[in-house]
Amino acid sequence: MGAFHAYDIRGIWGKDWDQEVAYKVGYFIPVLLEADKVLVGRDCRVSSPEIHDAVVKGINDAGADVYDIGLSSTPMVYFGTANYGFKASVQITASHNPAEYNGMKVSTTDAQAIGFDAGLGKIKSWIDEGRPTPVAARRGQVFQKEIMDDYLAFMRKFVGDYSDLCIAMDLSNGMANLFAKDIFGTGDNIHYLFDTLDGRFPNHEPNPLIEKNCLPLEEKVRQVGADAGVIYDGDADRVMFIDEKGTFISPDLMIALMGRYFVGKRGLKGIVLQDIRSSKAVGEYLAPMGCRMQTWKVGRAFAAAKLREIDGVWGGELAGHYYFRDFFYSDSGLLASIIILNIVADLKKEGKTLSQAIAEIVRYQNSGEINYRVEDKKGAMDAVRTYFTAAETPTAMMDFDGYRVEFPQWWFNIRPSNTEPYLRFICEASSRALLDEKIAQVDKILKEQFGATR
Fold it and tell me: Is 270 left (phi over 0), alpha (psi -120 to 50) or beta?
């Protein structure tokens, strides 16, 4: 039962969870959410049909009907949940994980996420305690539901003119294959990589945050002279971008770039959401546009709920999730890529490249996320915070997802992994020398006091 996590259910199929768990999760979803019908989608992983059958049987045995949309991206399930008024939905997917993994993302009314604290924990406890799963007197039925046409029509409302752009796009053998060519076309100006559905992910793991997975796209961008490169993860809820030089762009910077579209093009000033790891440059770039930044916890279960609570216009995370008021306050890799390519098209008309636009945002040297293996995560976090706050007075301090501590010339975030004995550390400073100094100090504290390894 090691597959229940803060945001979803996910693990190695047949090891961390199995058909019995899948059946019981399916059974308890309509019980938990008091739903008489459940929308169900699945990704292209080899194990997804087997999990799908177990989940559907569980839902039906609980007395609820299944509306099966078949192969889908995770944001398609969010769309279907909100657009058609479902109180419960499940997408069978392991997102960006390797092929041997699988999992489930559960949502409720208006595509609101059901994480561990919102109900997955209760389902886990019901399974652990052996709560019975009697077949309902009126067993549910399965109905096939076609939503692709409505989904594409919704997305096309945001599509711009890309005819003057050269685009390279890596579909990662994942669920972006369902819609990318319908949205972006198949003309000579667009160059696709790994554009077949294959849940074995034979070309690279469907995780664009791992540097080596972006190398084929970076090479393609340089080879064809593309204005931008786009790469989706396995279930297409995340997307990342490569500039015209073939250089990976830190995903948090794209939150800032989207201001050109939402404020510059549509005049939508308001609150913008970022996660606790985001560069200070994001808020500094957006503030003169009339936007106010809200910093919050990492993960869809937290970010989507917060964006809804504050009625934010848009937001994003360092991991490449982007959330939109226009999309039920949920994340969509497709919508994010549509918006960014709209911006790139406008930049080209101005005679400006994507890298030049990003250079206007970047103001600091950034460490990227550094992982330390350490057992006493809380003690190590406290020690790092104490060390730096004793030496210098912070200008801001946040403690809702690990610690983010800001000083006049630098800041850091240190946060625990939810599932592994790791601390995630990220630091940003006004100069490379200062950044290197702070990283070295953290290294010393964690290695000497807590036996941490990188």
Answer: left
